[in-house]
Amino acid sequence: MNDPTAAPSEEPTPAPTPPPLPAERAPLVELGWNGWLEADFQDLNEPQALPARVVSVERGGFFVAHHADEIEAPVLARLEGTELDSVAQPAVGDWVGVVVREGTPGIVGVLPRRSCLQRKASGRQGRAQVVVCNLDYLLVVTAVGYDLNLRRLERYLIGSFAAGVAPVIVINKMDRVHDLRAIEALIDDLGVEVPVVFTRALEPEGLTDLQPYLRPGLSVALVGSSGVGKSTIVNRLLQSDKLATGAVRETDDRGRHTTTRRELWRSPDGVLVIDTPGMREFGLWDAHPGLERLFPGISQAAQNCHFRDCAHIDEPDCGVLLAMDQGLFTRARLDRYLTLLEELQETEAQAAESLERLEARRERGQQKKLRTRRGRRRKHWDR
């Protein structure tokens, strides 16, 4: 019997309809263009500009494509106007506005990113490195053997969640001898529901389970260590041997960097695939939202701590320690969370120091220019 005092059930909110596309944008649809991007492009307010997608990046400039057929031979464009910082500069997967002046194309603006996967740049400079932008799925590729590591998977998932990209764990080389129960236990230890796909990239039907994530017009990127088979998977998707592949060492499964740069390709089936070089480490950057997504129970329990800056170690009235004692999560899971949280805090401190040094250099530069102008003026007056 229905309860007359119960609140009426809400109808699901329909998905918003994207703005219509001009007819001249039709060639861009195969690159992932849509009405929302068209609206962002109009906000650039550059009447002479044309939209394009960044296919690859080199020191000499940015290779962009205006049409799906141009991916094989993209156009080299320079960045015009004020120099942007490393994060704001165009990256592979970005949409940009391009203007051709005297036969030379130039990028006049970067459209807002739907997603942006970042990691901490190597070294202690406290800088971010953009890996890839505007994805539908991030394929986190690992393989049976030494690379199948819980902590490595956690890092990629945190980065993916923080970037706003749906992750898919791809466990490759399932043709090797393996313990399926141990693999399933490792996935269970992640503590979150994430799609997991088992592949055999060298076998004819080895990528069948990946098909739900490879629809035409979708953008996917492959990340992972060297030697896990990313380039082999990409070659299978492209139905050609565009990317070099190599063997791995038997002692530790380490592979050589056969992929040297990030590059966007379009498969014969219409999927936009981005291969990335193997990463020895994935340093977390600005990833607190991703950490909370991967450890929701701990993050929720932290709201009950008595102290706002509780370190969850031995503080009184710690909601996290109480939740652990109640069996809501294990000590091992908490230790992994605290290690990652400490890394994020250290990275934030390094970033603050780096920004302070940068601002100090800019201030010194401004003072030097001012002194130079004053000196020239005095010399002129003395004459």
UniProtKB/TrEMBL annotation:
Residues 1-25, 358-383 are annotated as: Disordered. The keyword Transmembrane helix does not apply. Its cofactor is Zn(2+). Residues 1-10 have a biased composition (Low complexity). Residues 367-383 have a biased composition (Basic residues). Keywords: Cytoplasm, GTP-binding, Hydrolase, Metal-binding, Nucleotide-binding, Ribosome biogenesis, RNA-binding, rRNA-binding, Zinc. It holds the Pfam family RsgA_GTPase. HAMAP family: GTPase_RsgA. This is Small ribosomal subunit biogenesis GTPase RsgA. It comes from Lujinxingia litoralis. The gene is rsgA.
